[in-house]
Amino acid sequence: MVVGQKPSERIWISSDVEAENLKNLMRAEFHAHLSGCISRRMLKILGSRRRAPEFIVDNESALSTPSRSPRNLEEAFRLFPLIQAMVVRPEDVHEVTVDVIREFSEDNVVYLELRSTPRQTDCMSKGEYVRALISGVIHAKQLYPHICVRILLGIDRRQAVEQAEETVNLAMKYRKLQFQRLRGSLLCAVTPNGSSVFAGPKDGKAESDAVIIGVEISGDPRYDARKFLPLLEKARGRLPVISFHLAEIKENLDDVHDCLQFGPTRLGHATFLHEIQDDVLREACLRHVYNNRIPIGVLFVSSF
User: What residues does the Adenosine deaminase domain cover (predicted)?
Assistant: First the structure.
């Protein structure tokens, strides 16, 4: 078994015992997207609840062999419209959040950051979507206590500034208001079906224990992210994490310098920082990342 991309980076695992030892290492996952982590098994469960028989028939091929991973990225991305078609109610969001956390917990992940862009459907508002995310995390904490989960709300580069502002406001609102003090010494959240899920003893640290920790600019890298900078400047200091996917493709590097000057908490991808054509600008960007010790989440493979 080989782990790594380049020959110089490969770790050779010569036995099943060594592979098991590697699997048993405690890990932190900083770049997981909720929609990209929903298993086909869970999709099949959600699909079986749909009332319309034609929905199941139309998507039978995508839902078949739920344990098999997609063969390529094209096949993987065909699942996303299906996911959006089935995750339409707060109950769905809550359930898939708990299930995704379960899988990471079973993989010995002890710190998990989930990204998810709030969606509005006929059955829920964006606020209800966020509340369902939070209730899912708190519920999962009772089932899998060794894993710590935090959420970044996603802002798609394709969105208008007004839509991004709504997401930022949701992040700030629910960071403060996600816990309700009930039953004396306990903190709890209300699940989509109205039941209470308890988060543990009240210790006066609800703010530091907040599930929502910030926002992340991601989505189609061909769209310029600079339009969001004035909005994010207003949120600075109120959200601990403001993350950017930058330099994800070499065809669009125009916004990299300005976004770095904003001072993101961390970067995603940053794969082509070294490909900026202007020598002075490239050196300035690389030096800024290095001097400010900005962490980079490098993604070698999809979460699929």
Answer: 28-176
Give residue 154's domain range. 26-38+87-246
Tokens coding 158: 């394709």
Kind plus residue range of the DSSP H or E element containing 243: strand 241-246
CA distance 130 to 212: 9
CA distance 63 to 56: 8
Helix or strand run (H / E) with residue 112: strand 109-116
- Check residue 22 and give its pLDDT: 75
86 three-class SS:
helix
Residue 196 and residue 2: Cα distance in Å, rounded?
A: 46
pLDDT of residue 137: 95
Which pLDDT does position 242 carry in this prediction?
97
**Which token pair is 137?**
């995390």
Query: What is the CATH classification number for the domain harbouring 205?
Result: 3.20.20.140
Does residue 149 form part of some domain? Answer: yes
Number of domains in the chain: 1
pLDDT recorded at residue 6: 41
Which of 153, 190, 191, 154 shows the shortest CA–CA distance to 173? 153
Q: Quote the pLDDT of residue 158.
A: 94
Strands 296-297, 266-269: pairing kind: parallel
Tens digit of each residue's pLDDT (9 = 90 or more) over 198-237: 444 444 444 457 899 999 999 888 999 999 999 999 999 9
The single-letter code of the amino acid at 155 is I
Q: Name the residue with higher pLDDT: 201 or 266.
A: 266
User: Taking the CB of residue 180, how many other CB atoms lie within 10 A of it?
Assistant: 13
Helix (H) or strand (E) holding 55: helix 53-58
Report if residue 237 sits inside a domain. Answer: yes
In a domain, 145, yes or no: yes
The three-state secondary structure class of 34 is helix
The rounded distance, in Å, linking the Cα atoms of 191 and 100 is 17
